[in-house]
Amino acid sequence: MGRLFAIEIIYRGIYQKTLAKNISRAIVLAAHREGKPGISFGRYGDSPERNGIPAKNFAIVATDDVTLEEGMAKYEPKEVDITIAVDDTLCKGVESWAWYGLQPVNRLLKPGGTLIVTSRENSDAIIAMSHRKEYPYQLAILKGIPSFSGLWVYKDDHTDVRILGMISKILPELFSLKSVQATIMDEWHDPVKSTSAAKSHEHTSPITVQPSQGNPEVPYKFDLPKWHEMGEGIAIPSIPAGHAVEDPATHAAGGYRPDRNPTFKKFSTRTMRPVVNFDTCIKCTLCWLQCPDSCFDVTQEGLYDANMQACCGCGVCEAVCPVKECVTMVNETEFKDNSSQWEAWRKDKQTYEAWLKDKIKSHGERSHGFRYKGQYEEQVPEMLEIAGKD
Ligand code: SF4
Ligand code: SF4
Predict the structure, then answer these.
(1) CA angle 347, 262, 215 (to 5 degrees)
(2) Is the CB of 287 under 6 A from ligand 2?
(3) Which of 50, 150, 243, 333 has its CA 20 to 30 A from that of 175?
């Protein structure tokens, strides 16, 4: 029996689909140059994808055909040599269509396997977000923002080839840098991309993450209903009388919190979340009306609290709010929980104000979304400069 290699790429549905496909395809092509057969595929359960939903691509390679066939007899790999997360906020966990509950980003890693993350954060921040594992694994960070390379109008920032260069350093038995560079020239005909891969290869130095390090929380999960617990046909119960006038969660008069999917949470769907300045809110209702995911709980005093179990991080509320700096999108890496901002504000307004300022100020600008036309085009040269320093 020969050796089987498995690599998964976890990405944000739609936005990073082409990027993930380019990476998994090039892995197979580079391995093929060294006589190893392989296959690259997307996870069936992740289709149809939605914007931002964590989704997966796999690259499976073997030293011979029989080993590959044996490996492919499984629906999808149970363990992988390398996990690649092309958005660092995915380190908080992955909840896709194909999974019930929250899956740790490092869940499939073999003992001693490597987690590659694209991030501007340092290793401490990445480890703090990632759930603990029972055995040590390696962490390698590729400095950069979550790339949109390959998404319609967005430009190439070399994230794909920089990751390929890293893999050739981390798992040289899979393929060499030489094979990566030959594949790049065949696929992209670009010597600059080939140089980016070489620089990334040279500067890759993973660190070991011990079982005592990382997020100690038990990931959120739920049990699927048994056949005898399911309702007859598809029946959606109507809202019981009285719910329109009292808060269904607290049963207090005034305020309103819509019923939500009790099992599919969206903790892992977003890269950003809104923070709200309740002191400047004019109660215009626009965020509540426009939020595509009905996230806003109406509070008893008529304020709007973005519920973090429901928010997918689209940024619409920030865009529609008419009050300057009342709603601000902040990168998800800044937060450690999903608790109610309104409850924190109600408890201690001064502490909340300081918290709010800290969250917004920590990134210098008001938003991590694109604030003006051409912003991405400005970011790409910056990314290429980082690639040059790899
Ligand atoms: S970012 Fe705002 S508009 Fe978008 S889902 Fe979250 S709360 Fe709703
Ligand atoms: S859009 Fe802004 S001002 Fe209007 S209710 Fe929402 S947070 Fe308040």
Answers:
(1) 65
(2) yes
(3) 150
Report which protein residue has its CA nearest ligand 1's atom 2: 317
Max CA pair span of the chain: 70
Of 20, 83, 96, which is closest to residue 52 (Cα–Cα)? 96
Domains of the chain: 4-221 (3.40.920.10), 243-361 (3.30.70)
Residue 201: pLDDT band by 50, 70, 90 thresholds?
very high
Residue 335 tokens, joined:
């937060």
Cβ of 353 closer than 6 Å to ligand 1, yes or no, is: no
CA of 272 to the centre of ligand 1 (A): 9
| DSSP 3-state of 9 | strand
87-131 confidence digits (pLDDT tens): 999 999 988 666 678 899 999 999 999 999 999 899 999 999 999
